[in-house]
Amino acid sequence: MSRFVPLALAVLLGCLIGAGVVWAAKGTGFHAQSEMPANAQSAGAAMSSSADQPALLSNADWPTDAPTPEQVIYAQSDLLDREIATLKPRTPGKVNLYAIVFAGDGSENVFRNEAEYFDKLFSRRLGANGHVIVLENNPASLTTRPLATWSNLEDALDAVAATMDLRQDILLLYFTTHGSEDHTLLVDMDPLPLDQIGATDLPGILAEHPFKYKVVIVNACYSGGFIPPLQGPDTMIITAARADRSSFGCGEQSELTWFGHAFLVDALNRTDEFRQAFQFASKQVAAWEKRDNYEASDPQISEGSGIAAQLAKWRHGFEPGHAVSFAPAAAVSAGAAQ
Asked: Which tens digits make up the pLDDT trace of 179-230?
């Protein structure tokens, strides 16, 4: 897939925004992740799909007190440098875990909530303080977090690879967004034209970086389709649904996805073992789905023998902190449209 360089993209945006519109490449067949359970502020979210062809989009819904889309693009280098600057050196003498969380859809706060909570949970409880990079698309964080884009993901991976001990440390990637039936993750911050990331793209992105031990968690509909291309002895893959099923929990009234709530808030506050957390979360999600008469999402896990042993070494290197309570991230400021 061809890549936009930031300067060229900014010039393109400048021209198009001057005309009042921009082209945005939209993925096909993206589905909403339905609704949260009653004890997690549920609300129904209808399934939707976007057009097969690029559409002309205005910037009418862009926050009124935010930088322009062109300014946001120009600011990405500085925002990413600032995020990367928060990385701390590895702690010698033990296996370290470095994480990148990617909140892809900027139209719903649920994904930003999940990314911000992930940062707190891993920093305060799971021994990764100073080892987490947050990439997110949301109107409320345009000036505080780098965008969740293909290019920023690659640069963040470069930065983490330069900090880690690649022979023993573990990379964790957590994606939270909508997913499509063709196993593509929605990457969207309208009206910016952002590239989508598919199940066949991610192995190539990772192959450009010399990571040995990896944990990839994909919280999206149809995310089971990411398992076959990523499987390996030194990789764990966890998905919120099997390849042909929707998952649930997005929508304007939701604060976290069902799987995000069950896996992050409920399970990882009880255990630091990812397989145990997955098993607990799967049972909890299944109970919510049965209660509301939804077709089971059937979360999936693949764990190679090499990553299992390395995760055990990581867990022996820290004492889990206290449970971290969840609170939604601050909403976009007053006067800003969403």
From this structure: 999 999 999 999 999 999 999 999 999 999 899 999 999 999 999 999 999 9
Cβ within 8 Å of residue 131, ≥6 positions away = 87, 88, 90, 96, 97, 98, 99, 122, 123
**Rg for the chain (alpha carbons), in Å?**
19
SS3 129: coil
Within a 13 Å sphere around the CA of 27, how many CA atoms are in the beta-carbon half?
Answer: 24
The reported pTM is: 0.84
Buried b (16+ CB within 10 A) or exposed e, 150-165: bbbbebbbebbbebbe
3-class state of residue 2 by DSSP: coil
State how far the Cα of 14 lies from the Cα of 20, in Å rounded to an integer.
Answer: 10
Domains and CATH numbers, the chain: 6-315 (3.40.50.1460)
Distance CA(256)–CA(92), nearest Å, equals 35
Locate tokens 């990367």: which residue?
84
Q: Which residues neighbour 288 within 8 Å (Cβ) at sequence distance 6 or greater? A: 37, 248, 258, 262
Strand partners, 214: 171, 235
57: enclosing H helix or E strand: strand 55-57
Tell me the three state secondary structure of residue 281: helix
The token pair that represents 53 in the structure block? 């062809």
Please, which residues bridge with residue 198 across strands?
184
3-class secondary structure, 95? coil
Contact 263, 275 (CB under 8 A): no
What residue spans of the chain are helical by DSSP H? 6-18, 69-85, 109-124, 150-163, 202-207, 227-230, 258-260, 274-291, 305-315
- State CA 320 to chain mean position distance: 23
Q: Which two tokens stand for residue 118?
A: 């992930």
Give residue 319's pLDDT.
96
